[in-house]
Amino acid sequence: MAGETPTAEFPFRKKRYDEAAMTALAAALAGVIEVPLVIYLHGDLGAGKTTLTRALIQALGHAGRVKSPTYGLLEHYDIPGISVLHLDLYRIGDPGELEFLGIEDLIDRNTLLLVEWPERGGDQLPAADLTIHFEHAGEARDLTWRPHTPPGESTCQALVDLMQ
Ligand SMILES: Nc1ncnc2c1ncn2[C@@H]1O[C@H](COP(=O)(O)OP(=O)(O)OP(=O)(O)O)[C@@H](O)[C@H]1O
Ligand SMILES: [Mg+2]
């Protein structure tokens, strides 16, 4: 309605996104992200968590490779103004291993923390501002974005505004 600011309904869902659509969404996210921010990426093996993360990190300005941190647990990207930590806890034996990684010491006010398989981190992880759930939908994927904090909500709102 004229004069009214529309408010997005959360969570918001994106149905049947192929890889190109997901890459475009990641680029849009890169344009609205404000650090610090913690994003948990939930979904089965092959659901698209690394694909979205890779597109996001490249859209943020990283020119090199973005590899899946499945074996090393952690990859770190220093982009001007933003420090990206990409964690993949699929192969973690025990949440206590996170202590040895020393992620608490790596996190500062410029950090974007992206976590695959966050449920394996127990209470050793910083709380999520935003969770994204990935589900297989035929050849494509369904995505559900759920904010948990005011920064998570403003990120979702900015993204929704951008897509309108
Ligand atoms: N939206 C999409 N539509 C179709 N295929 C996709 C989509 N997103 C990713 N894929 C493909 O699915 C495969 C697995 O993707 P990806 O590695 O991102 O999954 P993942 O969730 O990180 O899995 P894991 O839990 O093993 O780390 C890749 O071959 C990728 O190209
Ligand atoms: Mg992955």
Task: Name the helix and strand elements from N-terminus to C-terminus, one letter apiece.
Answer: EHEHEEHHEEEH
CATH superfamily: P-loop containing nucleotide triphosphate hydrolases
How much helix, percentage-wise, in residues?
A: 25-40%
What's the average pLDDT? 93
* C-alpha geometry: globular
Point out poorly predicted stretches: none
Q: Could you say what the CATH topology is called? A: Rossmann fold
Q: Approximately what portion of the residues adopt beta-strand conformation?
A: 25-35%
Task: Count every beta strand, where a strand is a DSSP E run of 2 or more residues.
Answer: 7
Overall tally of domains:
1
Class, according to the CATH hierarchy? Answer: Alpha Beta
| Major beta-sheet overview | 7 strands, mixed
Please identify the structural class as seen in this structure. Answer: alpha/beta
Looking at the overall shape, the CATH architecture is: 3-Layer(aba) Sandwich
* Strand arrangement, major sheet: 1-7-6-2-5-4-3
Would you spell out the secondary-structure blueprint of this structure?
Blueprint (H helix, E strand, L loop, with lengths): L11 E6 L1 H14 L4 E6 L6 H11 L14 E6 L2 E7 L8 H5 L1 H4 L4 E6 L13 E8 L2 E8 L2 H14 L1
Parallel strand pairs: 2-5, 2-6, 4-5
Antiparallel strand pairs: 1-7, 3-4, 6-7
Helix pairs in contact: 1-2
Write a structural description.
The structure is a single chain. This protein has 164 residues and is α/β, with parallel strands linked by helices. It has a single domain (35-163), classed as 3-Layer(aba) Sandwich (Rossmann fold). Helices cover 29% and strands 29% of the residues. It has five helices and seven strands; from the N terminus they run E-H-E-H-E-E-H-H-E-E-E-H. The protein has helices spanning 19-32, 49-59, 97-101, 103-106, 150-163; strands at 12-17, 37-42, 74-79, 82-88, 111-116, 130-137, 140-147. It has a seven-stranded mixed sheet with strand order 1-7-6-2-5-4-3. Helix 1 packs across helix 2 (49-59). The radius of gyration is 16 Å and the shape is globular. The two termini are 15 Å apart. The mean pLDDT is 93. Bound molecules: adenosine-5'-triphosphate and magnesium ion (MG). The site of adenosine-5'-triphosphate has 19 residues, from helix 1, helix 2 and strand 7. Magnesium ion is lined by residues 49-50, 68, 88, 116.
